[in-house]
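Comment thread on ticket #2218

A.B. wrote:
> Attaching the input chain for the structure job we discussed in standup.
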Amino acid sequence: MKLSVYAKKLGISYKTAWRMWKDGNIENAYQLPTGTVIVEEPNQRQNLNNVVCIYSRVSSSENKSNLEKQSKRLEEYAVLRGYKIYKSVKEIGSGLNDNRKLLSKILIDNNYNILLVEHKDRLTRFGFNYIDILFKSMGKTIEVVNISRDDNNDLMDDFISVITSFCARIYGQRRCKRKTEKIIQELKTGDT
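C.D. wrote:
> Ran it. Output below, let me know if you need it in another format.
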């Protein structure tokens, strides 16, 4: 049922129901790509086949336009696969940060059975397999749209991301960029 029907059923205003949904107080609700909020009846919750939560992430606010494009691509992918979109979450933060609030909320959310991400590193830089194992134990799956097949590039990307993260903490953003570029250049010219 639509959120407006749900509000009438409870005898509350639509604005109150909307605030409740935004605050995460309505567990069995999801938003369609059109913006309509759907609240499922408790007996409808038994079947969670192909209910997807989309997670998009970029590292900095400078890439906000890329965040929107990433989210749109994932929504189109989900629709073409016939998935029912429960929620689309967009977050700005480092893939090395293990305290991302929006990611933490969707990891414990039980209203979907597929977490959809564009690349593994959009979910996390390290520990992807641990999250995958945890999801399997919960009866959920993580679907990665673009799986990298080149292990050497993955290893190099992980190495560079660790260096960038530590440099940013020690030397600050501007100086870090120069140091990272220098390290990358040395890695390219040196023996790898």
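A.B. wrote:
> Thanks. Noting for the ticket: Helices lie at 3-10, 14-22, 64-81, 101-107, 120-123, 128-137, 151-171, 173-189.
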